[in-house]
Write a structure and sequence with these properties.
This protein is mostly helical. The protein has twelve helices and no strands. It has one domain.
């Protein structure tokens, strides 16, 4: 896969990781690079990781302020969540098509993942970010990067649940002023990448369909956190739902076309 394509996928993953309820791992899974990503993290394959990581970092840093602004207004927040609501629905169908759960254990894990996500979504934020010190923020970064690596589990949603999402966005918007918060989050994420990539690979090697069925169920249950019409119903947001449904389809068509050309 070309560096430019990896960079573009990375930018989409970065955008997805900014939104609570959407996972960059889901984007990697839908675009077909997920296993390559996990293996590259283990082997430290810089030819793969540098373009992908550059896209992720660039989109996160460039769009953090924009997303802060969009999430501050009810109308724009509704449109943004409507778009990603459509993206996750479409991505769920793609994942189900790839995994094709058949056994009872697969469907049981899918139902369990869905129920667990619904339970977590219905739980209010666990604590305020002011209660976390350096170690607490380090552990939050650790857990968040694991969530970002797994398809279906949103790192931003986990940050929101832990009460750290507002300060993470603030730290990205003003890194110098908030360096004391940004540093432990980044360190925790880096350590999480090194430690948990091997564990995730082992789980996928041993129980691929069971694990993916659980994660797909988590994606389905997590849709509740992306419900666009929590505050008010804006009919214009239906356009963004449709746009979100179409985007993964167009991306998949483009990737399939590129693969045929490379062959």
């Amino acid at each position: 896969m070309s560096s430019l394509r990896l960079f573009l996928i990375g930018t989409v993953m970065g955008i997805a990781d900014l939104i609570p309820g959407v996972s960059g791992g889901t984007i990697a899974f839908v675009t077909g690079i997920y296993q390559d990503l996990i293996e590259s993290l283990q082997k430290i394959n810089l030819r793969f990781l540098i373009p992908l990581g550059s896209g992720i970092v660039l989109s996160v840093v460039a769009l953090a302020r924009l997303f802060t602004f969009l999430l501050s207004s009810p109308l724009s927040r509704c449109a943004l969540f409507a778009f990603f609501f459509g993206v996750v629905i479409s991505a769920t169908f793609f994942c189900l098509k790839k995994v094709r759960p058949r056994q009872f254990s697969h469907w049981a894990m899918l139902a369990f993942g869905c129920g667990l996500a619904l339970l977590l979504v219905s739980t209010s934020s666990l604590r305020s970010h002011e209660e976390y010190g350096f170690l607490g923020l380090f552990l939050c970064g650790n857990l968040t990067i694991v969530a970002m690596l797994l398809p279906g589990i949103s790192g931003s949603y986990l940050l929101n649940l832990l009460g750290v999402y507002p300060i993470a966005l603030q730290a990205l918007n003003h890194p110098v002023q908030n360096f004391s918060q940004l540093l432990p989050l980044c360190l925790g994420g880096s350590v999480g990448l090194l430690i948990f990539s091997a564990l995730i690979k082992r789980l996928f090697q041993s129980y691929p369909t069971v694990l993916l069925s659980f994660l797909i169920g988590f994606m389905i249950g997590g849709l509740r956190s992306l419900w666009p019409w929590k505050e008010a119903v804006y009919f214009s947001s239906l356009f963004f739902v449709i746009l979100g449904l179409i985007c993964p389809i167009l991306l998949q068509i483009r990737l399939n076309h590129s693969k045929r050309i490379e062959v």
